[in-house]
Amino acid sequence: MTLNLCVLTPNRILWDSEVKEIILSTNSRKIGVFSNHAPIAATIDIGILRIRLNDQWLTMALMGGFAKIDNNEITILVNDAEKGSDIDPQEAHQALEIAEANLRKAEGKRQTIEANLALRQARTRVEAINAIS
Amino acid sequence: MAMAALRREGRRFAPLISPRPITAVRSSPLYPTLEDEGPLGLRHISTQVVRNRMKSVKNIQKITKAMKMVAASKLRAIQTKTENSRGLWQPFTALLGDLPSADVRKNVVVTISSDKGLCGGINSTSVKISKGLHKLNSGPEKETKYVILGEKAKAQLVRDSKKDIELIITELQKNPLNYTQVSVLADEILKNVEYDALRIVFNKFQSVVSFVPTVSTVLSPEIVEREAESGGKLGDLDSYEVEGGETKGEILQNLAEFQFSCTMFNAVLENACSEQGARMSAMDSSSRNAGDMLDRLTLTYNRTRQASITTELIEIISGASALEG
Lengths: 133, 325
Description:
The complex is a heterodimer of chains A (133) and B (325). By secondary structure, chain A is an alpha+beta fold. Chain A folds into two domains: 3-84, ATP Synthase, domain 1 (Sandwich); 87-130. Helix content of chain A is 31%, strand content 45%. Chain B starts with a helix and ends with a helix.
């Protein structure tokens, strides 16, 4: 039984092929999905998606969205996503430092929230690179 | 001998100088004051006037051709984006269904139109459909409000439905369209407008020559629950185990907001594509019309020119023959 994964962002289709297993981090917990999973509609937080093809694990950084799982079809809709292999480590580390700096000097509720969001996104991207290596 | 020949020539030219040589031009409304009666009762149109008109028509043709090419290149750029965004709203429709017939108390019609004109009839069709939806959904218990995107719909709807307009947003395409911008917009609309159902009216881009006016419906979470209970497509929703977050209601709320912003993004892109495509075909037919007009004017010009040369010749000949006696 083959599991088909489709990762979509507003700008492009990031992934559309068969996988063996995925580990999704939803708002409440991480769930692992094999084929013939029960139907699920889940919200995804800013975090990592791990995909297993045969024996190899791939990582993707997702920036929040929804997932629908039914009938061996996984559809993931996110605001933005990047494959771990596409992220440049240097740039990701720099982005993390900038985000941390911004958080420290954020004033007011709105800036703090935005800075927090940016920080989480940067952290996710760094995690995505680390998880492969 | 020579004179006799010239006289014969003169007679040969005579049929050209029929009393009303240039009927096409006379019927055009532009020349009423510029005709004058010359000898032989014929009307002279000054060649200068015709030449000026030809020059301006030629310029118009050049401009419309350029506009067509600009629209074609803009279309190419935005078409790829649109196709990529089409995959985004389809899962939502698969999960939640598209129920245009949902009967709700508070309808909000989001009309998407262009800011610039010269794009054919797409804005008028959108406005017509919006007005139709408004009429369909107004009654004792129901009400419909408008949210307008784009100058053209604003101009048309402000005239007769001013009190029903909630929000007007223009200059959407100042910066290239991207999801962040549209999601902020969607956020604004959701915050400021009470709704049970949002109906987005836009022109779907099927091909370069065909744009289909479409309505996408996004229902609010309460209505989704209501419809789910009554069965049908949404009845399957309950079979989904819902993960993440606290309550099902909250997740449905998030889902509805996300669905709205995705559908909006796609709708705005499709409408932009349709606008460029419609502008291409409008400018193309303009250039073709200008070309036809130019041909007709050239014929007129040549006839005028020949007529004036003939008149001069005849005058010279008759003058010369009169002198000879």
